[in-house]
Give the backbone structure.
Amino acid sequence: MPIMDELKIAYDEAGPAAPAGTVVLVHAGVADMRMWEHQFRALSGHYRVIRYDWRGRGLSGDAEGEVCHHEDLLAVMDALDVPRAALAGCSMGGAYAVEAALAAPGRVAGLALVSSGLTGHQWPREMLEQAAARVHSSVPPDRLARYRAGEADHVDPADVRAMAEAHTAWQVAGPDRARESLPAEVWEAAVEMCALVFERSWSGPRPSERHLDPPAAGRLGEVAAPTLVINGLSDVPGIQEVSGLLAAGIPGARRVDLPETGHLPPLERPERVTRELAAFLREVFGL
């Protein structure tokens, strides 16, 4: 798994000698590129498939200073000589894919937005309060404040695990489902990836994030790429609302709702998501 020296971004790619097109997979904020394992393997039979870890996530280098994730996405495409690709993004990875489609429309052949975020969108107060009650409360407030400020001399692995389990239960399983709703292997994979997110964010640099300006939330009508929106019906309601905004606001977008599915459908429902992506990519690339 190489790392682009100039970007310090870890990536993985696979595909046939003469691919039908290129697909870039952009992971969720609570995960890393491992969440796309099934889709990466399955789709690479026909397409050049690229997945990567954001700066500061997974195997990539630390994110320092100002970070703009949609520019990193386009830079990954540049570094790998990809003039045009279909983008599949989950959660905030979907938000960055939308930003890339607005910033460089000629480079995006299609958008698959899975449990997507949307930059410029204000999360509802009820969602933020629920996250505080069900996730942030898993670590004592004084220690959590020190972790977030980067002022802790030591990050307790037990706190990392507690936060990752609470976040996975609330968001990946869904606020109205028990953790047992997730298969054991899905639960452990999600907790492992989420724990790495907290471990790195609490112990590493504190970057600032820059988004597209003007923000994507007010510009959905400008998205020209064919778009598929995949929504998990057990996801946090505030996130499902964004799926509705994307499906209604992007011209011609098609929405697919998955029952009994939380925030990481590619991990929880791998075969179904792969089928949906494969059918969408056939349309995008004219196969």
The chain has two domains: 3-122+209-284, 125-206. The longest strand covers residues 108-114. The mean pLDDT is 95.
